[in-house]
Amino acid sequence: MKAERIIWRLLPLVPAMIVLATWSVYWAIAQPPPSVMPSVAAVIRTFGELVMGDRLGNDIVASMARLLGGVAFGVVTGMIAGFVAGLNKPIAEFVNPLVVFFNAISGIVWLPLVIGWLGIGSPLAIFLIWNTVFFIVYQNTVLGVQLVPEVLEHGIRTLGANRWETVWSVTLPGALPYILSGIRSGLGFGWRALIAAELVGATTGLGQLIFSGSEYHRADIIICGCLIIGAIATAMDRCLLLPIERRTVQRWGLVAPDRSR
Amino acid sequence: MRRRLRSFGGLLRNVRVLLPFIVLIAIWWGIKSGFGVSDRLLVAPPAVWSSFVTLVSHGILAEYASTSLQLIGIAALVSFAAGVPIGFAVGANRYAARSLEGFLRFFQGISGIAWLPLAILWFGFTHTTTLAIVIYTLIVPIIFNTMVGVRAIPENYVLALRSLGASRLRIVRDVYLPGALPSIVVGTRLGMGYGWRALIASEMLVRQGGLGDLIFGARTFNQIDRIMVGMIVIGCLYIVVDRLLVQPVETMTLARWGVLRR
After folding, report:
1. ipTM of predicted assembly, 2 dp
2. What are the extents of the domains in chain A?
3. Across the interface, do A211 and B117 touch by the CB < 8 Å criterion?
């Protein structure tokens, strides 16, 4: 019984073990050039060097600052626009074709045009993240606002609430699960947009770290960079967004939004 | 009379779709000529139109667009054909699901485009690099959502069918497949959203044709008109693919088997 529980606990480590084992065996047999495929030991050594050096810290800070700026901007503007459109059906219907179109080109597609406006650097990355997050948050906010049962709004109005109070204490909490679900998937898209933007449109950041790895033929740096990118994304999703979302759904959730991620 | 009414309704709907764009183009034109924005930053709508005509008449646009569509098509087929069976295999076995869930989630956090530098070292500046990136981007959400879909099916359904003497194949066909389908479709749609952007980004860096190459190449020569044509085409193609292929399938599966959307 106890052994089974330990095995159950250890199961999530199995795929990583298999990958490491395959990689080591392949490396020992094929002996590929380290610039293309480094050994496990070399990657661990590089990881140590990266952690000890200044560059990694600076890159992470640069990337996170851009992400925070872009996402905060996107969430605020997306929510405001979403509430305006969600509460005024004609506006939502009028802008809908534009939203569909600009959502289809949100993010990295803007890069060539916006490089000309903002140059290379943080403003460019923030613009691309904002552009990505805005449409996802907007669409989810509109959906959430429109799905709040009208009965609840009528209920509070008969008790004498004005329009502002109705929005604040009924519509906002009612739409919050959807909004948070939108923020969560917006962050997923935003993180991707950031890395893509930093590959060509920045001089610092995690995207630039891996890009310089390819310029200097340092596969070990690229692999370390990718693992760090994955770890940060997973940590953000698991430790920050999932708990917030869960608590909101428990507290105010009328309907749990479709969570597919 | 009725037909005339219907065509009038259709006209009204077209106007409703086009009107916002007309307003947007007017604003764009107004900003361009009102503030005298330089051609290096923004060009006027007619310039974009004439650039579009040139690109189409020389067959350039068709070539770049077909490269992109071919790549995303191949990647989508491969990812779907490989991802769904893998997802089923993993989802049907609780030990496999337990071990792979975190692993897949972690890899979903590493966007395909982050592997681009490594793929360039491995495959050079070729279509293989782009394909590898797009397949990776597409397949992870497909596997993950298929797995989640299979896991979400109540065990009782399987047990009920089994106690009635159904074969394993029958159970897959009548329980697993319909039960997981809505989730698979959601995963595919998400994957296409990520994949299309990964494709464009990868084409920008690989520079071997495709719409990403078109707009990024135009940047080097400051051809803003060309960039804007490329952006509009990218948006329209994505909407066409999403609306004509993915959305009907989603509506169909949700209408037929939609048990998961609560």
Report:
1. 0.85
2. 55-252
3. yes
